[in-house]
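Internal tracking record. Fields below are filled automatically when a chain is submitted to the structure queue. Please do not edit lines marked as system-generated. If the sequence contains nonstandard residues, flag them in the REMARKS field before resubmitting.
Queue: standard
Priority: normal
Entity type: single polypeptide chain
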Amino acid sequence: MKTELELKELVKSKYAEIALQDKETNMSSCCGSGGCSTEVYNIMSEDYANLPGYVADADLGLGCGLPTEFALIKEGHTVIDLGSGAGNDCFVARKLAGESGKVIGIDFTPQMIDKARENAEKLGYNNVEFRMGDIENMPVAANRADVVVSNCVLNLVPNKKNVIQDIFRVLKPGGHFSISDIVLIGELPAVIQGAAEMYAGCVSGAIQKSTYLQLIEEAGFVNITLQKEKVITMPDDILEKYLSTEELSAYKLSQTGIYSVTVYGEKPAACCTPGGNCC
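SYSTEM-GENERATED OUTPUT FOLLOWS
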């Protein structure tokens, strides 16, 4: 069993490689992790092309939803994007927040930060900033953001509780988040849970949907809503790398579900924590 630090280094190393891959490779695999499928294209990612502010050079095909479409971003908002990659969601958020808004992308992979900054420089955007940092302890002051977005990133973090608590910290009272992520209903086979490639590919790092929503509630968020939910079907030619014929058949009969969800939640305007500590 890998430690949290080892898992983070695994993700950082893999996403450094992904930063140099083409979009088609990323979209035909599990969050760009490799193991490309010949059965289907676009396993998890959704199409951003019709969203205002979309920048093709920033779209690496790594997401599992469209959180910025649901995030209720308004003119003048300060928006934080967790795991900002090459800047895809940041640039969509900037279009919504306008010239008077501010967008901060946070990523802990240097190659992704470099790519995002290059994209912002080419576009001439001066209100989009990319910061190197760990989303469990963001390089952002408390009560800073109106909106937090993230696309298929929390499943890559071993300690999801810490991330959710830090989202609460950086949001202003009355602020909100919209996050797309991968969750489970039922248990994955042990061999998939232990596969490093499948961890970097967003699947084995996913937790139960009920646990995910419970962590959000325990952090103090209110008005928690599932904005979108869809089943993710893992192709046989990827699963066959890890499962025997018998194991694959048993997995299909197990009713285990892998889901992409987009979740919304609000920080109370009074910003009281469950323990009674108020701002």
